[in-house]
């Protein structure tokens, strides 16, 4: 008697997926990016996880959403890897931590601060969270080819979206030169390193976290400048992904 043909959390096929995956937070973004592909097909959908397979420049790729936060995203990363993915790029949004990094700009992560709320349960906290070097270089080259403003550096992956009783240690990370804040990348980078896989990330700036932290009502990720940045970043991320084939 054979078992189920799909994996339990993402509902993607258990095996046979292409080795290249672009992972995003929002299911609607997964659908939008899949719309750029040739011969795109929905291959799995459950909860926040929506996954497509198609071709970019003739190369088979997966585009899949993981929702908000590291723990849920980790479930997606694990099942994609089980199904055959060996190279991951995360394409998402982030808040800038520097005044010269503006809305619509791209941030290419070289590493991430492990404040993600889950990887400390996978490995000791001293273990680094680093992007694969060739992923950083592929993203840098793709951004240059598209004439997209891009910044490379360390990003801060934080589990909590908004502070409550405890204040964000913003001053410390600003002093350390961290350039942006988001919610899932460190989880991906640690998972990939522990499994011997390749991973990187490119993020579209949708606000300045040093400002939005003091005035949460000013945060609006749906402005046209962000929409344009996401459109530009989609092509950059896909080009970089297939360059890693």
What does this structure look like?
The chain has a single domain, classed as 3-Layer(aba) Sandwich (Rossmann fold), CATH 3.40.50.1580. It has a five-stranded mixed barrel. α2 runs parallel beside α5. 47% of the residues are buried. The longest helix has 20 residues. With 245 residues, the protein is of the alpha/beta class.
What would you say about this model in short?
With 245 residues, the chain is of the alpha/beta class. The chain has helices spanning 27-34, 70-82, 133-145, 170-175, 185-195, 209-212, 224-243, and strands at residues 20-24, 38-46, 49-56, 59-65, 87-96, 106-115, 150-158, 180-182, 198-208.
Backbone shape? globular
Structural class: alpha/beta
What fold name goes in the CATH topology slot? Rossmann fold
Main sheet: which strands, in order across?
Answer: 5-8-7-6-9
Query: What number of domains?
Result: 1
Distance between the ends: 36 Å
**CATH class (first level) name:** Alpha Beta
Which series of helices and strands comes N to C?
Answer: EHEEEHEEHEHEHEHH
Identify the CATH homologous superfamily.
Nucleoside phosphorylase domain
* Low-confidence sequence ranges: none
How big is the Rg? 17 Å
Count of alpha and pi helical runs: 7
Mean pLDDT: 95
> Quick one: how many beta strands?
9
Beta-strand portion reads 25-35%
Q: What's the CATH architecture name? A: 3-Layer(aba) Sandwich
Largest sheet: 5 strands, mixed, barrel
| Helix coverage percent | 25-40%
């Amino acid at each position: 008697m054979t078992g189920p043909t799909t994996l339990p959390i993402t509902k993607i096929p258990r095996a046979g997926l292409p080795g290249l995956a672009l992972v995003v937070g929002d299911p609607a973004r997964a659908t939008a990016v899949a719309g750029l592909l040739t011969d795109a097909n929905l291959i799995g959908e459950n909860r926040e996880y929506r996954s497509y397979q198609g071709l970019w420049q003739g190369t088979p790729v997966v585009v899949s959403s993981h929702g908000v936060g590291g723990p849920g995203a980790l479930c997606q990363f694990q099942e994609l890897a089980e199904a055959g993915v060996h190279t991951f790029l995360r394409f998402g949004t982030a808040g800038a931590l520097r005044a010269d990094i503006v809305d619509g700009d791209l941030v290419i992560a070289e590493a991430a601060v492990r404040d993600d709320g889950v990887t400390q349960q996978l490995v000791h906290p001293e273990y680094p969270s680093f992007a694969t070097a060739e992923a950083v270089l592929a993203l840098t080259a793709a951004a240059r080819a598209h004439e997209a403003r891009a910044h490379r550096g360390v990003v801060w992956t934080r589990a909590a979206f908004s502070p409550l009783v405890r204040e964000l240690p913003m001053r410390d990370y600003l002093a350390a030169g961290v350039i942006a804040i988001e919610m899932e990348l460190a989880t991906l980078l640690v998972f990939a390193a522990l499994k011997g896989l390749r991973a990187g990330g490119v993020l579209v700036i949708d606000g300045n976290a040093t400002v939005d932290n003091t005035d949460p009502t000013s945060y609006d990720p749906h402005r046209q400048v962000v929409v344009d940045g996401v459109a530009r970043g989609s092509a950059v991320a896909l080009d970089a992904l297939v360059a890693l084939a």
